């Protein structure tokens, strides 16, 4: 069968759409945390261990070595961040960006109902596929990423929540949002640049500023943008 990443005819693995290590805190706690008001907000928690035959062993290994392991080593959020304050950190831009794009790509090629809101379309799917394979993070304005740290009722960064991705319109662009690893990630998918979105998100220097938001206030794109806007950008 055809691997969705390299497009070669290969034996396919049972691929994770969301990398396995992100579930580690979920397994530890034996239960999924519910997000307050999730019905109203449109968030839906994702069941653990969602797999599908998508990628060959070589591509699985590429994603793991090039993006998942580097992300895991870099993504060390503090245990707690005060609500409505910001946390700024600097990551390795190419691997950090491509890690999130690799999840978005897998969600797009997946036929599982949990990922049905992600449809990158032929042009973006092909562009992102090539970027992942060639380890090319693309231009700075391409597929910009914003993040909000998700804070639970105890003031801790909540890493036990993984949601299905959702799509929202943002100033005539499409953005996909998903919670995993303690943050809500928004990726804008558009052929046109949006300077405002870029300015508030991951910078080419690898710096990203995240506002810490209580999990019951995680809303739609406009809210996220408004909150990040309050954060002082350095
Ligand atoms: Zn492959």
**Main beta-sheet annotation:** 6 strands, mixed
- The helix/strand series, from N terminus to C terminus, equals EHHEHEHHEEEEHEH
Count, helices? 7
Rg over C-alpha atoms, rounded to the nearest angstrom: 17 Å
**pLDDT under 50 segments (min length 5)?**
30-40, 220-225
Distance between the termini: 48 Å
Shape: globular
Mean pLDDT: 86
Would you count the extended β strands for me?
8
Write up this protein.
With 234 residues, the protein is α+β, with helices and mostly antiparallel strands. It has one domain. It is built from seven helices and eight strands. The strands form two sheets. Strands 3-8-4-7-6-5 form a six-stranded mixed β-sheet, with helices on both faces. Strands 1-2 form a two-stranded antiparallel sheet. Strand 6 and strand 7 (183-189) form a beta hairpin. Helix 3 crosses helix 4 and helix 4 crosses helix 5. 40% of the residues are buried. Bound molecules: zinc ion. Zinc ion binds next to strand 2 and helix 3.
Question: Keywords for this structure?
Answer:
6-stranded mixed sheet; alpha+beta; 7 helices; binds zinc ion; two-stranded antiparallel ribbon; single chain; 8 strands; 234 residues
